[in-house]
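#struct-help
A.M.: can someone run this one for me? Single chain, 223 residues.
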Amino acid sequence: MRRWGRRRGWSSPRNKEDGLREIASKGQLRLAYLRWAVVTVPFVLLLGFTSARLVPSGSSNPWYVALIKPDNMPPEWAFPLAWTVIYVLMGLALAMIINARGSTLRGPALALFAVQMAANLAWTPIFFGMHQVFTAFVVVGVLGVLVFATMLLFGRIRMGAALLLVPYLAWVGYAGFLLYQINELNPNAASLVSAGGSEQIQIDEDSVLVDDGNDSGTVTNAD
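D.P.: on it. Structure tokens below:
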């Protein structure tokens, strides 16, 4: 009877030890993930904010202020807020993949993540620095494809990592829609000058330099 009970329902001390080891192993995996997340989240945030600081953006960029915006353009504060949330989620997804050491797809997934991140960081200088709206629109299209491919590859390793990138893909799609509208509304966007520059040109046209016989000239109105 005792022998039957051991086989059917009783658990031996060895099985209990195996269960404890399994629980400890899961706890160690979670701890390792958190350790990676502490590194990857600030790293992705730093990359994103560094790219944004390379050139003036938003209302601090006169060229951008001069652009005609679509009616569905979000308020300016929405962009840094959205990107902060997205970068945090990207960092968490990256940590999840880095921690999946047993997967053979880990290397390709990390490489694809790096490629899409490079495309992400290149967008700000192209749009706000070079004033190339159409090129920026193409970059966003390429970025959307790369993000989708990254999601597919992440999903084969950790489904949670793929789900963390869903807001990223949605925001990139929305950004592409906005860029398409901006490009249609501003066909000569690259040739736009700031409001301050336009005022200076107007002043120069309405004024002439008159020599009063001294070393320095005085500017008077031609009228």
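A.M.: thanks! The first helix runs from residue 2 to 8.
D.P.: also worth noting: The radius of gyration is 28 Å.
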